[in-house]
Structures are given as structure tokens and as C-alpha cells.
Write a structure and sequence with these properties.
With 156 residues, the protein is an all-alpha fold. The chain has a single domain, classed as Ferritin, core subunit, four-helix bundle (Ferritin, Up-down Bundle), CATH 1.20.1260.10. It has five helices and two strands, in the order ββααααα. Strands 1-2 form a two-stranded antiparallel sheet. β1 and β2 form a beta hairpin. α1 packs across α3 and α2 packs antiparallel against α5. It is elongated.
Length: 156
């Protein structure tokens, strides 16, 4: 019986796949929230935020694909139903948000949660010597931390 996947401990890789599916579920909720914010934003910040939310949901869509492909690379199965996403996600669902401050606060809260999940995965991927997952999480975290900083600066 093979105990390795990509030269990595099979059990640790399975755990990472489970955690990556949790991240995937949260990214899907975040993505859908951003679509809703993009469509429904109103007020004096409309032009600025409409464009920003499109930029963020396009980036989130790319990250969803990268996470799913990483799960497949680790010989896991990426979740792909709304039922699965809703049962695993801890990011709040934004419904009928049209005001700028509330919208940006939702983005910050969501990114904080994504970063928390990614840091957990980063620790486990380091322990598993899984450089592929480690690198992916590091890239996500550094980008998202900058976005949080910018969003918080906008809120002030």
C-alpha cells in the first residue's frame, strides 16, 4: 500500500485536502458576496466600489480555481455544490447590502476569516513539507493582508 502522495505523507495530505475544501467553500461564499456587492452598491462611492468589487470577485474566482486544482493535485475531490459550501463556510452571507461602509466591512470581515483559514493550512502544509500548498497560501495571505489594509484605510 502506497503511503505517499507526491512524496508527501498520505494522511497529512488528506487532512490538507479537507482544510482546502473548507477554504474553497468560504471562497465561494466570498465570491458570491462580492458579486452581490458589485451589483447592488449605491451612493457616492458607487463608481469606485463597483470597479473594486469587480476586481475582487475576479481575483476570488481565480483563487477558487487554484484551490480546487490544488485539491485535485493532492488527489482529493473539490467540493462543488452550494449545499456543501453552505454547510462548511463560516464567512457571513451578505444579503441586500447596498451601502458603501457596510459593504467594505463585509469584505474586511470575510478576508479576515479567509486569512485565518489560510494560516491554519499554512501551518499544516509546512508540517507536511507540502511546498506547493505552502506557497499558494503564502501568496494568498500576503495579497489579502494588503487588501485588508487598504479597505480599513478607506473605512477611516
Amino acid at each position: 500500500m502506497d503511503t505517499k502522495i507526491l512524496g508527501l505523507n498520505k494522511e497529512k495530505v488528506r487532512e490538507l485536502s479537507i482544510d482546502l475544501n473548507e477554504l474553497l467553500a468560504n471562497f465561494q461564499v466570498y465570491y458570491q458576496n462580492l458579486r452581490g456587492l458589485h451589483w447592488n452598491i449605491k451612493g457616492k462611492s458607487f463608481f469606485e466600489l463597483h470597479v473594486k468589487f469587480e476586481e475582487l470577485y475576479t481575483d476570488a474566482q481565480d483563487k477558487v480555481d487554484l484551490v480546487a486544482e490544488r485539491i485535485l493535485t493532492l488527489e482529493g475531490v473539490p467540493l462543488h455544490t452550494f449545499e456543501d459550501y453552505q454547510s462548511l463556510a463560516s464567512i457571513p452571507t451578505g444579503k441586500n447590502i447596498s451601502q458603501d461602509v457596510e459593504a467594505v466591512q463585509l469584505v474586511v470581515k470575510s478576508l479576515d476569516k479567509l486569512i485565518e483559514i489560510e494560516r491554519n493550512i499554512l501551518g499544516k502544509s509546512g508540517d507536511a513539507n507540502d511546498e506547493g500548498t505552502n506557497s499558494l497560501m503564502s501568496d494568498f495571505i500576503s495579497e489579502q493582508e494588503k487588501t485588508v489594509w487598504m479597505m480599513k484605510a478607506w473605512l477611516r
